[in-house]
Every structure is written in structure tokens, then in C-alpha cells.
């Protein structure tokens, strides 16, 4: 069973009239996602790609029954768009925008406290429940429906791992791109908790990288709850220079966040470590065989 989204998810796009919003909304509809409208101040009452446009998220929710929003608003105003959706009590917000200023995301984080909204991202590739719902920018074609959950900080590695799992005969329940920025919503720990509460999830792949403490927090949670299903972990960036920014905003090491310490923490907590990106699918297949023995 999928987490966060399903066949009943009704999606609006904040920033739909821009190139990215237009392109990916259309791609999502082609996949089968139920996109029900868009939000762009000043465009209310018009139509775009044959969908109604609204001036505000609350109005769009009332008129369409939307229960999820994706944010394709440019970085300077992306935080305001997220906050609008949170204040409208949108259950799920998926923020695809990259390079949202950290100070802006601190405002978003404060707004999330005590809210009913689950925020995924920003700088997320999105959420994909194969055959049910796609919210985001991920490529499709190699995914298969099944019982493996995928949690990832990396968009490109998510695509690679999804293809590997399918090739190994293992379908996916949901892939969740939590986003690579230093300050974001749903964490790796939060995602694993959701998967562990899904009785149909048979295993989970966690894709981590250098920077921050997401993987250590995931390891702490695993040590606490001791998952009864296999958790395969991949952490990339083993050879990255320490205390140097590598790639996007989340991949910055200063005292913590190096790959080796993350790998050690996850292994100690019971995760099965995939030694290389190309081994994730086979590592999960072998882990499931051991669990079933």
C-alpha cells in the first residue's frame, strides 16, 4: 500500500502557469494523477491546460476538493506559497522548488509547528506511488507496483534504485524524495515511520548522502523501534573532502555529516549497507530472502 498518496489524491499546482508547472502538471495527468486545478494570484477564473485556475489555495481546496498541492513557485516567493498552503490546512504539500533561501525555510518550519500539513521538500523530486499517483518531476517507465518503500535525498539515485529494484523483481509501494536542502519538511526518520506503519511494506531502501544529520536520526529511530522488515541503506560521498560544500545546499560537512559516520551509525542500528549504488537492488533481494527463511 502506498504512503502519503493514493488513487484518491487530488492535486493542485501552485505556480502552474510557469513553464515547469505547465510541463510537469501535464506529465502528471498523463501518468494518471488527478490534477484538479492551479493557483496563481490574478489568474483566478481562467483556465490553463484545461484546468480551472484560482487566486488562492483555500479557494482551490473549496472548489475542487484538493488534498495535495505541489509548489512550482520561484525561490524568492516559494516559502510564501508553502505557508499559504499550510495556513489553508492542505494535508500534503510537495515543494519542488530549488534554492529556497534558508531564512525563508525557517519561517516555513515555524508555520508547520502544530499544523495538519505534511511538507515534502523543498528541492524534492516528489512522490511516486507506481500506477496510482505521481507528484513531481521524476522519470517514469522503470517503476513497478510492489512492497518496497524508497526514501531518498537524491533524485538521480532514486531513479537508479527504482530501476534496479524493478529489475530484481521487486516493485515499489512509494518513492519519497525528501529534498536535499538543509531545512526541509518530512525527514528520513518520518518517512520510515510511515512505511513501518504500513502492513504491506516488505522492505525499505534509504538513500543518503553527506551533509546534515538525517541519516544519524534515522539510525537512532531504527535502534529504538528495531524494524522487523529489512532496511537497506546507501550513503554516497565516501570520498568527498571533509568540510567542503559538495553539490546542493544540504551536502555540507562541518564536524558532522561525513559518509563513514553515517554508514557506521546505520549499520550499528541494524541497516543492511549497500556498498555501491549499483548493488542496492540485489542487496534488497538478498535481504528479503534471508528474512523469509
UniProtKB/TrEMBL annotation:
SUPFAM superfamilies membership: NAD(P)-binding Rossmann-fold domains, Succinyl-CoA synthetase domains
GO MF annotations, alphabetized: succinate-CoA ligase (ADP-forming) activity
InterPro entries noted in UniProt: Cit_synth/succinyl-CoA_lig_AS (IPR017440), CoA-bd (IPR003781), CoA_lig_alpha (IPR005810), NAD(P)-bd_dom_sf (IPR036291), SUCC_ACL_C (IPR005811), Succinyl-CoA_synth-like (IPR016102)
Enzyme nomenclature, EC number: 6.2.1.5
Pfam families per UniProt: CoA_binding (PF02629), Ligase_CoA (PF00549)
Domain of life: Bacteria
Protein name as it appears in the record: Succinyl-CoA synthetase alpha subunit
Originating organism: Aquamicrobium terrae
Taxonomic path: Bacteria, Pseudomonadati, Pseudomonadota, Alphaproteobacteria, Hyphomicrobiales
